[in-house]
Fold each of these.
Amino acid sequence: MAYSEKVIDHYTNPKNVGTLDKSKKNVGTGLVGAPECGDVMRLQIEVDEESGIIKDAKFKTFGCGSAIASSSLATEWLKGKTVDEAINIDNMDIVEELNLPPVKIHCSVLAEDAIKSAINDYRVKNGLPELTEEGAK
Ligand code: FES
Ligand code: FES
């Protein structure tokens, strides 16, 4: 299978690998697994409480190269967005940007699920209702 240069770049040189302090009220943590393969992804956001802008994002992915590349790209996209904008990051945008082949689409779904899960954690911690299936779109 031929991977795009962007996948290889995010895989060999992933951005924002790490951990944020999940005890902080302005940090949201998402932990999700892919039923297709058992890979696991943790993604965290740190929100500037005044502006609602995501000022930092980190991930750790125990999974395939495409999942690592998807989460690396996702953290890059998250930074600088408001939480409400971040809800609208769609896995198909990741597929397009990384040119993922069909068998690797679920790897990008994992990244979208991790984003939503991190946002939900942040929302619940701050007294907001959880997102519904459709998100807050
Ligand atoms: Fe083996 Fe994802 S299926 S790492
Ligand atoms: Fe399962 Fe990529 S996340 S193969």
Note: Helices lie at 5-12, 65-78, 83-86, 91-98, 105-125.
Amino acid sequence: TGASRRIAVFGAGYIGLVTGACFAELGHRVVVRDIQPERIRLLNSGEVPFFEPGLGDLITRNKERLAFTLDVEEAVRDAEAVFVCVDTPPTASGDADLSRVWAVVDALRGASHLVAVVVKSTVPVGTGARVRAALDERDLGHVGYASNPEFTAEGRAVEDFLRPDRVVIGASDDAVARWVADLYGRLDSPVELMDVASAEMVKLASNALLATRITFINEIATVCEATGADIGHVSRAVGLDHRLGPHFLRAGLGYGGSCFPKDSRALRAMASNSGYPFQLLNAVIEVNELQPRRAIQRLKTELDGLKGRRIALLGMTFKPGTDDMREAPSTIIASRLLAEGATVTCWDPMAPHTDGRQEPWSSATRRPDPLGAMTDADAAILVTEWPELTDVDWTAAARLMRNPLLLDGRNLLDPAALLSAGFTHMGVGRGTRRPR
Ligand code: UDX
């Protein structure tokens, strides 16, 4: 097992680059193809187009086995398998836009030497069957097809890929399934073989269940606020039940990112399209959209209105350890605050500078450090749990603020410490505490 293979990866985004670099690390020869000239130029000059820990090193370390190109021919010519890692953004109807997947399939015309086409992109159940039919129509009937969804989380993608909880492979042909499994041969992780539709479903089900868990604990947090319980104790003790486990029980301002919001909406759309209203998932999506708005509402009540108030946002990215702003709760929070007539100052160590181009951040003032953002503010909202925020001198912050009030949207900080620093402290799922 674990023979060295030649692989073409279509798409040099998060999934494609991590897949390409990690397969190279596992000893395979990989050509990554993308349609964006700038992206390929960057990669060829040794740069990574986005931040992902360890990815740059991995690419450098394996550069002998890794090439980047715009050219389909060059990518496919010597490849034994093509991995489809293009993005599948939502369309107006909420369905996944598969046009990039189809563009790859079209580009494979004549590639009859391939052993397999493998889709890693997140796609609706049934896509594999349609790709299979399209391959057959293009005289590629003997080329195998497999679904091989990816479960890597941003910020730990390389580690997740090289030490996965499981590798999921869906194929109708056993030989193809084993061939794909063999690519991961050097990893010591369980391989789950199944049919294509089930593999497609695993990805959607996993993300929807994780989103549901987060949303469940967020709703418990709301009940805690209303009843005087403390979500910190509740989450911890609930998570100690071995049947539940401790992960994804952190209450906060709602999930964001490139996967959970998109994939849960795609699964809902998929269910609706087949005439089944996925009510539980529907509720999850609604509650998650409400979550940041609820926080704003609490703050509005506490400050007796937001008009003319200066609010500091600590953290902008959808989670720490990434520069990714996709579906970040901070965006909703900033635009709601601005709509209420507040002034917004913000800090984030990694969010890209938008040069004032992108709403709502164009109307927010960015500061290079948290204390700068909090100066003269009427309240601060901790939006992203950046570890840097635990090192802030909160006593100094309290003095710099017009009104030392912190809404800790991720329950990162110790309420007692904030209280003794002179803050009024609001957490998610715990009551408001005021200094004496
Ligand atoms: C996720 C999945 O983890 C990954 O398997 C999938 O392939 C892609 O989507 P990612 O979006 O990178 O990965 O981030 P993740 O760390 O899972 O967090 C997602 C969101 O949930 C973040 O906004 C985070 O703040 C939030 N979250 C997570 C909570 O609010 N509470 C938690 O307990 C955990």
Note: Residues 215 and 286 are 10 Å apart (CA to CA).
